[in-house]
Specification:
Length: about 300
Amino acid sequence: MSSVIMTDSLTKQYGKKTVVDHLDLKVPAGSIYGFLGPNGAGKSTTLKLLLGLIKPTGGSIRILGREVNPKNRLDILARTGSLIESPAYYGHLSGRENLRVICTLKDVPVKEIDRVLGIVRMTGQQDKKVSHYSLGMKQRLGLAAALLGNPDLLLLDEPTNGLDPAGIQEMRNLVCSLPEQYGITIIVSSHLLSEIDQMATHVGIIDQGQLIFQDTLSSLHEHSKSRIVFSTDDDKAALKVLKQANIPVGISEKRLVLRAQKDAVVAEAAAALVHSGIGVLRIYEQQMSLEDIFLQLTGKQVSL
């Protein structure tokens, strides 16, 4: 699969502070690339670099097969839509009137407005003043504006930030529908692991400006190692019995955990405990969550 975005050692420094540190992004065509990291990790700065809103200190950027430079930047941006931070609107104008203004700025035919309003399901609210819109409606209008001109690439910076659960679900469904229905490649940044887990096909994790993981979402989940947890009526005694039987076992987070998952080992452990008169209350398989994996990779907790 070809890459719609490729960066080579992309770097941005402000004085002595390195905000983006030799980043090598590869965003496959047709993917939803979840750009994940804690607040302040460098996500928004990276997106602004990709859009040419700020200049890199070093490295290069290729978008849609072309190396970005001052001569072709506008041509590339014409094929790129973006929703960075909170979208700005004229509150006294309707949603449709705001989109008409953006059509003029982007030199896009006005007939595009009906198409994008249909995509974001706002046809019924197009004539309301934007000052009367909910936050979710404003975000959807921002997405409609980003879709004007039928872009090949869409960059979304924290698109569900501040939305209520219904608004988050609505925005998530919209984003997930775009690659399949319209052939758009999307890079979406978030500090919410659960959101990326439900939207993305590929993931890049950034921490303190450095890319610490980049692959498919399924590959990220493969980092999760399942373990067999025993719940007994006397875990201390159970630990002693299993160690005496040379069964690989330990205590993790105050739970009795087998370090092997073969059925024969699980059966042997259960038999040993029952034979010793220890009550086995539950045996279950536990997998690391995406949050656990992130903590393992970065050494820090993030918002859930």
